[in-house]
Here is the input.
Amino acid sequence: MDALVLLGSFFVLMMLGMPIAYSLGLSALIGALWIDIPLDAVMIQLASGVNKFSLLAIPFFVLAGAIMAEGGMARRLVAFAGVLVGFIRGGLSLVNILASTFFGAISGSSVADTASIGSVLIPEMEKKGYPRDFATAVTVSGSVQAILIPPSHNAVLYSLAAGGTVSIAALFVAGVLPGLLMGLTLAVLCLFIAKKKNYPKGEVIPLRQALKICADAMWGLMTMVIILGGILSGVFTANESASIAVVWAFFVTMFVYRDYRWRDLPKLVHRTVKTVTIVMILIGFAACFGYLMTLMQIPLTVTNYFTSISDNKYVILALINVMLLVLGCLMDMSPLILILTPILLPVVTKLGIDPVHFGMIMMVNLGVGLITPPVGTVLFTGSAIAKLSIGTVSKALMPFFAALFVVLMMVTYIPWLSTWLPRALGL
Here is the structure.
């Protein structure tokens, strides 16, 4: 009955249209009153939920991504990707995927990826003869890479939701191979569709122009080297790499590229603060909600339920995948990570599944939810940029959903894709 009050009040509040963060907070208060614990205890959890040093990485990475997204870096990365693959049949779709790989390794945000790459490439692809719905589908599906390839904001949230028992650095590194696998799978699909529908080839860029484009893009690509190289070499932590990325992004945008106006910086910082505030409120209220779930022994109950169905970890993973895919269609990624990780992590660890591996499974599952109606934020962003209906873009996404499902199955049932690189680097 306790769990019914807590979870039932949360879903009722959410269905009434209340924002998820406030639904979590109010349902936590209702649950506390129901089991008669002091509200002071809930407030302490709220404060301690956001009073974690590791959370500093989120505002820094968000700010670095915002500076680079609006400072001309996305356009230069698109041009660089065009040099590498733009001359192939269907080359602009490959440019889209590859540019998302590069930009995702800088911004760590699928929404920022879609907004930046999509605003450049969706009109360009349509101009070159690609259907607008196909161009939008390529853009939004390619942007899912950003939640896997470091620096992923969601990896930080997963580490937090796991109680800090999973290293952020290990999660960053673990996302490299699954992220590249996703990009490769989508690229193969684009090549197949381009050949079948005879989409146009691009032109080979002259050597002198190609060298200039590459030199121009290297300033942005150095951000990846700073973030990953610094963490892996032990020179600085994930938090420190995020702050250094902000300094580097500011330097490149304002003093090298000089496409951004100084008077627009306060507005950019204001938007970043609003984004971070929303995330921090969500984290604080999720901490309260998780505390109540622990007191009500909901994680233990869920663990016993799953293990009563089967002791085969592959069967349990299949059931968890189905549940995550369904929930990903109904809720945004961040709250699901914060709510479900404390519930499902005990289940999978009891079955001997590596927490880092499970983190990648969650990322891919919930990443698919970002491009799935009715609440897919990345899908909404891409549709708004392309000025197409959600239904039109969703129909064009069908083959891309199949490709992402293949990636999900590989990440789920081939653990070394997620665990080999962290172990090889001693993380």
User: Anything to note?
Assistant: DSSP finds 22 helices and no strands in the chain. The CA atoms of residues 177 and 417 lie 6 Å apart. The longest helix spans residues 265-295. The chain has a mean pLDDT of 84.
